[in-house]
């Protein structure tokens, strides 16, 4: 299914913060909200008490998180819904959400990491979603990523956008942009919510994983028969550090080099300071010869 653009943010339209995943630390949220106010000075930011709810490592009970997210995504007055953080918890919401109906609301959902479990099913149902920073990440974003988000929240979309990385395997391909966090993507395997990756440009990022675990997860995708279906693979950052520790990129590179598909590594998205906006479901083009990923080709 071809994904359609959401109702984009615009100056003066309120923004809302949701917490569909992990428990949110109050200080991290406060700092993130201050950064968001700087990036979107013309928009009111609604951050209800539900965001700071807590149940063990989750931001409150599943039913309550699902209900709050559904309410926000169904509000036609909101310019965008931004995730407070990732962590874990979105997978648990999938059976509780009416995703088909939510995909028809035109809501603009922004997040990444654990939000991979929500962004991809919504994109598969026809709604472009935005793989981008979570609120608690905002204070440490680099200038390019801040400019990306500020422009979007002000109603100025910067797509198509060409992002430069490291060329690994040659070739050129185009298709819908899908994927995100490798760990979360593997967690969707075998469920009704795993995205159809046939002909897709697959993005991958992660953090806190050892090289052998990255290898194992890529092998899982390969053995499940889905890695061979993609048109190309675009890998972002694999840690939250300024530069990924040795061995992480090499582990993925060894596994991806033999795909006979274009592959680009070290692109500016993920858990570190660089986390550029990537519209999932929209058309992307990848060049494994030049190391360039161009996103949002149909969103000009």
Present the secondary structure layout.
Layout: E1 15-18, H1 26-39, E2 45-46, H2 62-73, E3 80-83, H3 90-93, H4 99-102, E4 109-111, H5 116-124, E5 129-131, H6 143-153, E6 161-164, E7 166-169, E8 172-181, H7 182-188, E9 201-205, H8 211-223, E10 232-235, H9 248-256, E11 263-265, E12 278-280, E13 283-287, E14 292-295
Helix pairs in contact: 8-9
Question: Which keywords apply here?
Answer:
300 residues, alpha/beta, Rossmann fold, Glucose Oxidase, domain 1, 2 domains, eight-stranded mixed beta sheet, six-stranded mixed beta sheet, 14 strands, 28% helix, 19% strand, globular
Query: Tally of extended strands?
Result: 14
User: What percentage of residues falls in helices of 4 or more residues?
Assistant: 25-40%
Biggest sheet details: 8 strands, mixed
> What is the rounded Rg?
18 Å
CATH fold-level name of the largest domain:
Rossmann fold
- Point out poorly predicted stretches: none
What is the CATH-assigned architecture of the largest domain?
Answer: 3-Layer(aba) Sandwich
The strand order across the widest sheet is 6-14-13-8-9-10-11-7
Number of individual domains? 2
Give the end-to-end Cα distance, rounded to a whole number of Å: 19 Å
- Overall shape: it is globular
Q: What is the H level of CATH, i.e. the homologous superfamily of the largest domain?
A: Murein tetrapeptidase LD-carboxypeptidase, N-terminal domain
Count the DSSP helices.
Answer: 9
β-strand percent reads: 15-25%
Structural class: alpha/beta
In round numbers, the mean pLDDT is: 96
Top CATH class of the largest domain: Alpha Beta
- The helix-strand sequence is EHEHEHHEHEHEEEHEHEHEEEE
């Amino acid at each position: 299914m071809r994904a359609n653009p959401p109702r984009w943010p615009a100056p003066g339209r309120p923004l809302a913060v949701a917490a569909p995943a992990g428990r949110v630390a109050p200080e991290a949220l406060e700092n993130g909200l201050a950064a968001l106010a700087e990036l979107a000075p013309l928009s009111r930011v609604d951050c209800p008490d539900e965001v700071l709810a807590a149940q063990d490592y989750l931001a409150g009970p599943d039913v309550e998180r699902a209900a709050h997210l559904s309410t926000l995504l169904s509000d036609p007055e909101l310019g965008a819904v931004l995730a407070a953080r990732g962590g874990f918890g979105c997978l648990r919401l999938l059976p509780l959400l009416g995703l088909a109906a939510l995909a028809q609301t035109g809501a603009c959902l922004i997040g990444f990491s654990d939000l991979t479990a929500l962004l991809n099913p919504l994109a598969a149902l026809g709604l472009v979603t935005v793989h981008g920073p979570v609120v608690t990440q905002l204070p440490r974003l680099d200038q390019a990523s801040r400019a990306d988000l500020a422009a979007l929240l002000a109603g100025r979309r910067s797509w198509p956008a060409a992002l430069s990385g490291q060329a690994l395997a040659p070739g050129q391909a185009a298709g819908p942009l899908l994927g995100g966090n490798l760990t979360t993507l593997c967690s969707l395997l075998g469920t009704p919510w795993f995205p159809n990756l046939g002909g897709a440009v697959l993005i991958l990022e992660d953090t806190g994983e050892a090289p052998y675990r990255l290898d194992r997860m890529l092998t899982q995708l390969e053995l499940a028969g889905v890695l061979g279906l993609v048109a190309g693979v675009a890998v972002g950052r694999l840690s939250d550090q300024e530069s990924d520790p040795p061995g992480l990129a090499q582990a993925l590179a060894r596994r991806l080099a033999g795909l006979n598909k274009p592959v680009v590594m070290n692109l500016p998205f993920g858990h570190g300071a660089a986390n550029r906006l990537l519209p999932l479901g929209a058309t992307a083009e990848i060049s494994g010869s030049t190391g360039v990923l161009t996103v949002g080709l149909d969103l000009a």
